[in-house]
Write a structure and sequence with these properties.
The chain has 719 residues and is an alpha/beta fold. The chain is built from 27 helices and 21 strands. The termini are far apart.
Length: 719
């Protein structure tokens, strides 16, 4: 069989990785080095050359988008249907396994996935039911506590409290939360993986089955795996299995989300793999790569790579020293305007920042210039409130014992069911071990409600019962349309929100009906015996759990550095490169966190294809206070020969680029050296206004930056 086409357009290290025949393989794939191509061609090589059954391969990545792209590229390369291929995310693969073995792990066949927002609501409800102080036990940190311990493979009984009352209460919240989930047939994202781990760990027959099934296991973005995911990999990897792992320890930036960069080194230690380094970059100029290499070189305990390219040398990295954050935003938008004037597309440019709060000034400046923009990573479709409301009704139609869905819509639209009535239902459910739906039905039968509350609750339960009876066997789109119409959601939003916002919500509800009507059930869900409705609910929950935005239109992209991973743009601005902001103040004293901040800088730099601007401001308003900062240490780690300064700021490198012209105010101009009777000698670094009313920002040698009014400052010019 002629398989030469599988190696076409691959460089030598890529071919080495694709054709590796012995043992396990670790591919250290630098940014822009073609790792997806290597994974796809590796799968094709195993199928065509080694005659591995497509059903005998398991490929795992971190987003549904990446999994879909990999599945489709494999199908095109081999001219086969992608149905049945085990290519998906960790959560998606675990969901698929649990659907087939629900009874064995103590789950109902109709179990539903609890997304992050609904998990938060359920945790909050548990805290209230336990009558705990929400100031002492806020729901969001408790949600993090639960997920952290699940990610580490720990159930409540595995957590040592050391007789500490606060820790014991946290564990009790975790235990009660889990009880609610068990009673309602709900599974959160971390539970998907933990329950699968327990199945494979505790059931010899199932573990042997999946080891025999998947002779070859391929894992992308390995540096983003957490403790639980690595444990799953080790369980699946029996003596005969072959692991093909692709990762980059220099791009591990999700430690705050539980990712363990050390898993790459652990894999090398535990499996003794063949190591292949992909260092040829096909994205960025040589200058950008050399600068990024020099920054990341300052991190210790790296496995080591050095990105290079056969492409052009490219422009120097331009460093702009702004006097304040407003000037930084104006400068960036002016450069974007120039880019568009010269024929570039708005969507070819991206502004990257460390904190979401930094987007405001860029949004204002872009609006002034009438340049279209989009804040990347906003709410995905299935995360929008009106969509989640409608989906909660559909979840109750599918499973009336879903407590989280019940809580969300029992009084939406408002029907006179207040907190006192809900507390009564919760107490009844807790006392009898029932779902909220069962408890509400029992209280109606027993006359446990007031007349008004009883009538309202009866109407709600009848609505759910009628929807279930009438649309149990309906087409999915028809059922979804009935839910939206009978629940009167559009009218509810129109009655309480501005017209434009209500209209947008109505459009999203109409789009939800269209999405349900055109839903194509995944092959694996059909094989697992899921109804189209159960499959639709599961896929929606998995979509809502991703941390990526939707595909953009032709507009400037504003995003955090974390959101930028995996993307590329011809023109990139990295803003707010100041000590305390980036690297973040909380990371400066912690070597491990500082190393992750540096990796984040490396990721940001390697998003740029042709031009990279790095900006910092001497003053910035943060959390209501003006702060004065030094340029980020990461700037000093870039060799001066690779940079061009656009204004002499606090950076010590001499300016090699164009200087801004002086702005005269009386006898003073930018850069003037002055003496103040109290603050001593300093340099004028900013001027606002004219004449005696002008405000001068002066960086004093001993006192730091100060704002003074020209007419009252009594400054002596020294130069």
């Amino acid at each position: 069989m002629d398989v030469s086409h599988l190696l076409d357009d691959l460089n030598e290290p890529q071919r080495e990785a694709v054709t590796a025949d012995e043992g396990h393989v670790l591919v250290l794939a630098g940014a822009g080095s073609g790792k997806t191509r290597v994974l796809v061609h590796r799968i094709a090589w195993l199928i065509q050359v080694h005659h591995v059954s497509p059903m005998g391969l398991l490929a795992v990545t971190f987003t549904n988008k990446a999994a879909g792209e990999m599945r489709n590229r494999v199908a095109r390369l081999l001219n086969l249907r992608p149905d049945g291929l085990w290519i998906g995310t960790f959560h998606g693969i675990c969901h698929r396994i649990l659907r087939m073995h629900a009874a064995e792990v103590g789950l109902p066949e109709t179990f539903q996935i609890l997304d992050s927002d609904d998990q938060y609501r359920l945790v909050r409800r548990v805290i209230r039911d336990m009558e705990l102080d929400e100031g002492e036990f806020p729901a969001r940190p408790m949600q993090g506590f639960i997920n952290h311990h699940k990610d580490e493979g720990r159930r409540p009984e595995h957590i040592e409290t050391f007789d500490h009352a606060f820790q014991a209460r946290q564990v009790a919240i975790y235990r009660n939360y889990q009880d609610y989930c068990e009673r309602s047939g709900l599974v959160d994202f971390a539970e998907l993986m933990l329950r699968t781990l327990e199945l494979l760990r505790d059931n010899d027959a199932r573990r042997t089955h999946y080891r025999d099934r998947f002779g070859h296991i391929l894992i992308d973005e390995f540096q983003d795996t957490n403790t639980l995911q690595y444990a799953l990999v080790r369980l699946l990897a029996g003596p005969q299995n072959r692991l093909f792992v692709v990762g980059d320890d220099d791009q591990s930036i999700y430690g705050w989300r539980g990712a363990r960069v050390e898993n790459v080194a652990h894999f090398s230690r535990d499996f003794d793999p063949v190591m292949v380094r992909l260092e040829q970059n096909y994205r960025s100029t040589a200058t950008i790569l050399e600068a990024a290499n020099r920054v990341i070189d300052h991190n210790d305990q790296r496995m080591g790579k050095n990105l290079w390219t056969e492409g052009e040398r490219g422009d120097p990295i331009r460093i702009f020293s702004a006097y304040n954050a407003e000037e930084e935003a104006d400068f960036v938008v002016a450069r974007i305007h120039d880019w568009i004037e010269q024929g570039g597309q708005p969507s070819e440019s991206a502004v990257l920042y460390r904190s979401n709060a930094q987007s405001r000034l860029f949004e204002q400046a872009l609006l002034r210039e009438d340049i279209p923009y989009r804040v990347y990573g906003g709410l995905r479709f299935f995360e929008r409130a009106e969509v989640k409301d409608a989906m909660a009704y559909l979840r109750l139609l599918h499973n009336p014992h879903d407590d989280a869905a019940f809580e969300r819509v029992v009084n939406l639209p408002a029907r006179g069911i207040g907190e006192r009535t809900l507390s009564l239902v919760r107490d009844h459910a807790r006392g009898r071990g029932q779902s909220l739906y069962e408890a509400a039905s029992a209280l109606i039968a027993e006359g446990g409600f007031t007349a008004r509350a009883g009538a309202a609750m009866r109407a709600f339960l009848q609505l759910i019962g009628q929807l279930e009876a009438e649309h149990r066997d309906s087409a999915l789109g028809e059922a979804m349309a009935a839910v939206v119409e009978r629940a009167e959601l559009a009218a509810w939003y129109q009655s309480r929100e501005p017209a434009d916002r209500a209209e947008a919500r109505e459009e999203n509800l109409a789009e939800l009906v269209r999405a349900a009507d055109s839903f194509n059930q995944p092959f694996e869900d059909e094989q697992a015996g899921l109804s189209p409705m159960a499959s639709f609910l599961a896929q929606a929950a998995l979509e809502a759990g991703e941390h990526q935005g939707e595909r953009w239109q032709d507009c400037v992209q504003l995003m955090t550095l974390h959101s930028a991973k995996g993307l590329e743009f011809p023109l990139v601005f990295m803003a707010g490169m100041e000590e305390g902001l980036f690297p973040h103040q909380k990371s400066i004293e912690d070597p491990e966190r500082l190393a992750e901040e540096r990796r984040l800088c490396y990721v940001g730099m390697t998003r740029a294809m042709r031009q990279l601007y790095i900006c910092h401001a001497e003053s910035r308003m943060l959390r209501g206070q003006t702060s004065f900062s030094r340029p980020s240490r990461f700037l000093t780690e870039i060799p001066e020969a690779l940079t061009e300064n656009l204004r002499p700021g606090l950076r010590t490198a001499p300016a090699r680029g164009p200087m801004d012209g002086p702005i005269e105010t009386g006898a003073l101009s930018l850069g003037a050296t002055v003496r103040h009777a109290r603050f001593g000698i300093g340099t004028v670094i900013n001027i606002e206004g004219q004449g005696s009313a002008a405000r001068l920002q002066i960086n004093f040698e001993s006192a730091g930056p100060k704002w003074l009014v020209s007419g009252y400052a009594n400054l002596e010019r020294l130069d």
